Amino acid sequence: MGLLTGRRVLVTGGAGFLGKSVCEVLRRFQPGAILVPRSVQYDLRDRAAIDRLLADSEPDVVVHLAAVVGGIGANRKNPGRYFYDNAIMGIQLMEACRLVGIEKYVQVGTICSYPKHTPVPFCETDLWNGYPEETNAPYGLAKKMLLVQAQAYRDQYGFPGVTLLPVNLYGPADNFDPQSSHVIPALIRKVVEAQASGRRWIEVWGTGNASREFLYVTDAAEGIALATELYDGPEPINLGSGQEITIRALVELICELCGFDGQLRWDASAPDGQPRRCLSTTRAEKLLGFRARTSLREGLKQTIEWYRRVPQRQAA
Questions:
Q1: How is residue 41 annotated by DSSP?
Q2: What confidence category does residue 178 fall into, taking pLDDT thresholds of 50, 70 and 90?
Q3: Do β-strands 263-267 and 237-239 pair in parallel, antiparallel, or remain unpaired?
Q4: CB of 175 within 8 A of CB of 306?
Q5: In total, how many domains does the chain have?
Q6: CA distances from 214 to 142, 167, 182, 201, 239 (A)
Q7: pLDDT (0 to 100) of residue 72
Q8: CA 223 → CA 18, 101, 126, 188, distances in Å?
Q9: What angle do CA 84, 165, 30 make, to 5 degrees?
Q10: 200 — phi, psi (to 5°)?
Q11: Is residue 37 part of a domain?
Q12: What does DSSP say about strands 237-239 and 33-35: parallel, antiparallel, or unpaired?
């Protein structure tokens, strides 16, 4: 029997893009119940709602995935909201879980917490060596403070809090809303819409020189579930694929997979964001036995196929 066997597991954000995959993987560990609260019933920014949620669900384990997230454009428009909502949800939920004696608390942070000029590959020990990239610093710092809280609570109260740092996620059922989506769904939507309208070009933000690393959503869910079952330590763990690609090469790959050979118009006045992103995944492999299994090409192919298949109003 493992830690999760027979336990009641509460997954905030469990109805979302990542959360659905996490709940599916968690079922393999035979929990007694997986509980998925909805924000309409339990607003995690409201402490009274959190207390009511814990009283109603009586969880043994909490996996905190709920977050307010978006791409560069959304972060630039909403720095205050992204800081406050993410910080207040996590701070209050962790305190409430401490008070009721939760057996295990797992929270998902973000690669945006890393300093802007972190050497590649990003090691967990680099996390405090500078200030995050400016366009998403409020979001990244809010999540970073939750790591501090978990470590402080472990030191003072013996609270079993664990923090994971996933790289940029993507996959079927991602957010394709052009106002808030991340780079992969935004690009897929641009290409597919250009094809549908017969347009022979797309506009792309930035110079294309920045690099990113991407993790397929089911791989991320596997890492989170393994950490929930196996890991109990104060240090954060990166979750990534360990594969870096420039935005220019990413756009070209998406165009190839979509069968689009139109012109790429780069808007160099738009921000590139962090210059490079690629994680060291050594700690995850050593402590969790985790290694991403889905190649970027295969993951993009699955995501594009899903987007073409699903009615656009659902994908958005």
A1: T
A2: confident
A3: unpaired
A4: no
A5: 1
A6: 22, 6, 11, 25, 10
A7: 77
A8: 12, 25, 21, 26
A9: 105
A10: -100, 20
A11: yes
A12: unpaired
Which of 42, 114, 139, 170 is labelled catalytic? Answer: 139
- Does a structural domain hold residue 176? no
Pairing state between β 211-216 and 244-246: antiparallel
Q: Residue 272: pLDDT band by 50, 70, 90 thresholds?
A: confident
What's 152's domain CATH number? Answer: 3.40.50.720
Mind listing the pLDDT tens digit for each residue in 61-117? 999 999 988 777 788 899 999 999 999 999 999 999 999 999 999 999 999 999 999
Do the Cβ atoms of 184 and 307 come closer than 8 Å?
no
List the structure tokens of 254.
């998406």
| Residue 66 resides in a domain | yes
The predicted model scores a pTM of: 0.94
User: In which residue are the tokens 């993410």 written?
Assistant: 86
Inside any domain, residue 267: no
Instruction: List pLDDT tens digits, range 179-206.
Output: 888 899 999 999 999 999 999 999 998 9
The backbone torsions φ and ψ at residue 211, rounded to the nearest 5 degrees and listed phi first, read -115, 155
Host domain of residue 162: 8-170+214-243+276-294
Least Cα distance to 109 among 78, 76, 150 occurs for 150
Instruction: Tell me the residue ranges of DSSP E strands in the chain.
Output: 8-12, 33-35, 61-64, 104-108, 161-166, 168-170, 201-205, 211-216, 237-239, 244-246, 263-267
Output the six-digit token pair for 161. 């809090």
**Distance in angstroms (rounded) separating the CA atoms of residues 115 and 129:** 6
What letter does residue 45 receive in the DSSP assignment? Answer: T
- How many C-beta neighbours within 10 Å does residue 17 have? 19
The answer to whether 216 is a known catalytic residue is no
**Spatial CA neighbour of 84 closest among 61, 102, 67, 105:** 67
The pLDDT of 7-27, averaged and rounded, is 98
β-sheet with 8-12: strand ranges across: 33-35, 8-12, 61-64, 104-108, 161-166, 237-239
